[in-house]
Amino acid sequence: MVVSSVMAALALILPVAFHAAGLGSRFLPMFLPLLLNGFLAPLPWAVLTGALAPLISSLATGMPPLYPPVAVVMSFEGAVLGGVAAALYRSRRRRLWWALTAAILAGRLTGAAATWVLARIFALPPQVAVLAMLVQGIPGVLLEFVVTPAVVLQLSRRRGILFADESETEA
C-alpha cells in the first residue's frame, strides 16, 4: 500500500513538472510511476492505483481533463498498464522485458480502444483520434522502455522487501 501511495503521488507530481518544463504530455509522465508500480506492488494495488491516479489528478490539478474525457481513457490505460506488468512480472519469474513490453502494448491498445469508443460518441473521426493518441505517445513509450528497466534493476539489486520472495516475507 505504501509503494502504491508513493507511485500515485509521483503520478500526480510528474505531469506538473513535465508541463512546467515545457515537455507536456508527449512523454506520458503519469504512466511512468504507474508502470513502475506494476513491478513493485501486488496486482490489485497496481490496477487500483493505475485506475484512480488519473481521476485524482484530474480533480486535484485539472490534468488530465474530465471533459473531453481524457482522464477516463487514462484510467483504463493506467489500470491495464500496471495490472499487466504486475501479473506478468510475478508469474514469469521476474522476466522484466517480457512484462514491460506486454504491459506497454496492452496499455496502449486499451488507450486506443477507449479513444476509439469516445471518438465515436463525440462524432469525431476515430481513426484520426487513435492515430494522434498513438503517435503523440511515442516519446513516452521510449522513455518507459529506458527508465523502467533501469529503476527496477537498480531496486532489485538492493534485495530489499520489494523484491523478496513471497515465502520470505510471510515468515
Shape: globular
Mean pLDDT: 92
The helical percent reads: over 70%
* CATH arch. level architecture: Orthogonal Bundle
The rounded distance between the terminal residues' Cα atoms is 19 Å
- Order of SSEs, N→C? HHHHHHHH
* Cα gyration radius (Å): 16 Å
Strand residue percentage: under 5%
**SS elements, strand count:** 0
Tell me about the largest β-sheet.
none
The name CATH uses for the topology is Arp2/3 complex 21 kDa subunit ARPC3
Q: Briefly, what CATH class?
A: Mainly Alpha
Low-confidence stretches: 167-171
Structural class computed from helices and strand pairing: mainly alpha
- Estimate nothing, just give the exact number of structural domains: 1
Q: How many helices?
A: 8
Topology (elements, then pairings):
Layout: H1 2-20, H2 31-40, H3 43-61, H4 70-91, H5 96-121, H6 126-136, H7 138-157, H8 166-170
Commentary on this structure:
Mean pLDDT is 92; it is low at 167-171. This protein has a single domain, classed as Arp2/3 complex 21 kDa subunit ARPC3, CATH 1.10.1760.20. The longest helix has 26 residues, at 96-121. The chain is mostly helical. Helix content is 77%, strand content 0%. It contains eight helices and no strands. The two termini are 19 Å apart. α3 (43-61) runs antiparallel to α4 and α5 packs antiparallel against α7. The protein has helices at 2-20, 31-40, 43-61, 70-91, 96-121, 126-136, 138-157, 166-170. The protein is globular and about 50 Å long.
